[in-house]
Amino acid sequence: MGNVKIADFRREPSRPHFDIGSLLAEREVDRYTLHTKFMNEQMVRVLQTIGYDVGFRSGHGQYLFDRKGDRYLDLLSGWGVFGVGRNHPVLRDALKSVLGSDLPNLVQMDVSVLSGILAERLLEYVPYLEKVFFANSGTEAVEASIKFARCATGRPDIVHASHSYHGLTYGALSVTSDKMFREGFGGLMPGFLEVPFNDLEALERALSTRKVAAFIVEPIQGKGVYMPDDNYLRGVQELCRKYGTLFVADEIQTGVGRTGKFLAVEHWGVEPDMVLLAKALSGGHVPIGVVLTRKKIFEKVFNRMDRAVVHGSTFAKNDMAMAAGLATLEVLESEKLIENAARTGARLMAAFSDMAERYELVKNVRGKGLMIGVEFGAPKSLKLKAAWSLLETMNTGLFCQLITIPIFKEHKVLVQVAGHGNHVIKLIPALCINDADCDWVEGAFDEVIADAHKVPGAVWTLGKTLADHAMKARAGA
């Protein structure tokens, strides 16, 4: 048996009998029917109500193409997943290479080369941390950080900030403040406390009990694009060190170049005890979650040989995800996408700030790099104020749809609100957008916002239609 070679076990290509392309073409007509019957019917109803049911067929870079071949600029990027753009050839080639290499993936009783290389590469970006734990998603990274913090400190409590979003599994949901995500799911985990974002005094009161294992916070909060005060994260770091609490930075959306730096915390010069990554590191192809942590924390968890598998995940460290992560970092560097995010983000921020000066409905513009929030608010002029108040009475936060829907239907730009019931539209496009794309974004927003200042007008007619839908849905609930 010792003379048997690997080549003897390779499968020769057989005649294709299963073709995904043919299956897609054959069943495209059933796209919404399948989801209505077997999956989330309410999502289909939402798409059809607001006119987003165009049937996207392909994606390249920052662009999407619908069933008619029309091109759209995507400012959602899969909630920040496609940092390097959709279907990047470097990512595709890396994944093909893994599939063609017959690697011994997920042996479990071994360690993989690719995961070691990716860990090494990631820590080069965050040199004050020394260890890496891989998971399958952002929410899994959050769950791991909670367990690690409790194990490393021996303390029971976890503190998070108001307006936070950290995921939807029970541990992550327990540090997510939005009641909409919590409603209907029963009691959450004990030992989780909330303090106001940007309030260092409230944080100190919570930490001074010396029962808090970790404070977990998004450097820039995704639901609303809420920014930290200039001294906030520095103050968080000082308080955590003072009271022996671990400082956990959730960079699942802000990390991997989104804000014009590899990590958003770099803007404020702080060094958390744990950094959480996911989303964009995947390249949009294979889910991945990461905890970057201090060695002393890691070694409290994995402290003996019999605890080598005390926490893990079956598909974590799989070769496809590791290759996707390595390819993503390569594209970020070779195409200077972090620098591009800083440059194009500054341009868009300036354009939106100019609109805030010219349009009374635009109240605030905030963000870093290509994570931008445009906040709308009650106008002062009587006609606009009356229309706004009527809409808000029917459904809080509905106004932003009066901007996003015509931007989508008339200008072919895909964008959405930054959270349930708020008045912020969030832009998180691929980091590869260019100046022509910025022209497209600025022109679309300027025209639609200008139209929103005309009462009566098409925008407010749309508002009445949406409000009617909302009232009927509420009555039928």
What's a concise summary of this model?
The chain is α/β, with parallel strands linked by helices and 477 residues long. It is built from 18 helices and 15 strands.
Quickly name the level 1 CATH class of the largest domain.
Alpha Beta
Contiguous helical run count: 18
**Rg (CA only):** 24 Å
User: What strand line-up does the widest sheet have?
Assistant: 4-10-9-8-7-5-6
Uncertain stretches: none
Distance between the termini: 68 Å
Major sheet attributes: 7 strands, mixed
Q: Beta-strand percentage?
A: 5-15%
Structural features, described:
It is a single chain. The protein contains 18 helices and 15 strands. It is α/β, with parallel strands linked by helices and about 475 residues long. The chain folds into two domains: about 55-85 and about 335-475, Aspartate Aminotransferase, domain 1 (Alpha-Beta Complex); about 90-335, Type I PLP-dependent aspartate aminotransferase-like (Major domain) (Aspartate Aminotransferase, domain 2, 3-Layer(aba) Sandwich), CATH 3.40.640.10. The longest helix is centred in the last third of the chain and has 22 residues, at about 335-360. The N and C termini lie far apart (about 70 Å).
